[in-house]
User: Which sequence fits this backbone?
């Protein structure tokens, strides 16, 4: 039998096939990675449960009206002040009688109007989160010499327990 | 003895080998398959996310249900007006459709994933909080408590522009 020469497969169209697949994936997919501000809603209200009584000094009231204007503790304020106010409120440890007794008891209370814009609300919420992250980070640095997100789960829990994040939101009323 | 080397013909232009072209294209293809995610819904509402910097990355796509809120895109404005509307899946919805939607999303996932589910609210930066509050109230009633306000990563001062 005569030795047949090995037939080569024509790979010329391979590129076309691959291009076709490539274009399909380019069209049907998106590149964007999703980012978001996480929030845990309180469970549905239980009619039998009594309202917890919180002392006035432990509550930091933040109010946003329908024109996106701010009030912190009944005093007009700007968005850049929120973070420092919240930090001051959490880390007061009973010194100033107008701020909280201890971080565990500190409550941030957001009240907004139905006409408040979403971006204003998210900005305020973002600032409160930033304040808590800063306080937790400082605590982590002081205690373990590492930033908060580099700690182990147990260490993070410990700091979270010391500085819990209590943010209350009121059902919006017309302001 | 036969000549070992053929003499190159001087005038014929050599053809470029395209044998490695499929490999290059496949490499690109794999890159895009890994780096991108499938587009799930067509948007019927205009959503310009607000900026925030204390954000987390949303990793597990299969745990997320999306609620879009915004003004309908131009071609639907005649029919649905220019007031912000809610979009669930591929349809316009009202506030009362949210609870059935969440329950359907929950049923579509296995038992052990259900407590981990996150509802992502993708709202336009200029919608009013009234509609967002209504959504949150509905989510609370069905115990979908983990929510996430979708935002663009960036300084919050961009929000005031």
Assistant:
């Amino acid at each position: 039998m005569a030795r047949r020469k090995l037939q080569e497969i024509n790979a010329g169209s391979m590129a076309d096939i691959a291009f076709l697949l490539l274009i399909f994936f380019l069209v049907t997919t998106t590149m964007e990675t999703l980012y978001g501000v996480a929030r845990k809603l309180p469970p549905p209200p239980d009619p039998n449960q009594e309202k917890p009584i919180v002392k006035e000094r432990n509550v930091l009231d933040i109010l946003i009206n329908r024109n996106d204007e701010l009030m912190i503790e009944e005093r007009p304020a700007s968005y850049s002040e929120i973070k420092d106010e919240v930090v001051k409120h959490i880390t007061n440890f009973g010194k100033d009688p107008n701020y909280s007794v201890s971080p565990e008891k500190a409550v941030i209370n957001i009240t907004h109007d139905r006409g408040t814009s979403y971006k204003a609300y998210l900005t305020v919420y973002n600032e409160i989160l930033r304040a808590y992250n800063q306080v937790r980070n400082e605590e982590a640095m002081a205690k373990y010499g590492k930033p908060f997100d580099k700690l182990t789960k147990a260490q993070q829990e410990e700091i979270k327990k010391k500085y819990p994040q209590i943010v209350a939101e009121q059902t919006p009323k017309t302001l | 003895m036969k000549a070992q080397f053929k003499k190159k013909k001087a005038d014929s232009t050599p053809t470029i080998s395209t044998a490695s072209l499929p490999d290059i294209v496949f490499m690109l293809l794999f890159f895009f398959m890994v780096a991108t995610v499938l587009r799930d819904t067509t948007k019927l509402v205009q959503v310009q996310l607000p900026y925030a910097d204390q954000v987390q990355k949303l990793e597990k796509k299969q745990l997320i249900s999306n609620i879009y809120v915004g003004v309908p895109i131009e071609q639907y404005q005649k029919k649905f007006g220019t007031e912000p509307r809610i979009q669930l899946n591929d349809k316009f919805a009202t506030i009362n459709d949210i609870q059935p939607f969440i329950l359907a999303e929950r049923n579509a996932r296995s038992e052990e994933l259900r407590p981990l589910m996150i509802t992502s609210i993708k709202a336009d930066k200029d919608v009013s909080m009234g509609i967002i509050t209504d959504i949150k109230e509905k989510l609370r009633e069905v115990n979908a408590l983990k929510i996430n306000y979708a935002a663009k990563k960036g300084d919050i001062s961009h929000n005031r522009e």
Observations:
- Chain A has a mean pLDDT of 84.
- The helical segments of chain A are 14-28, 82-90, 118-144, 153-162.
- The radius of gyration of chain A is 27 Å.
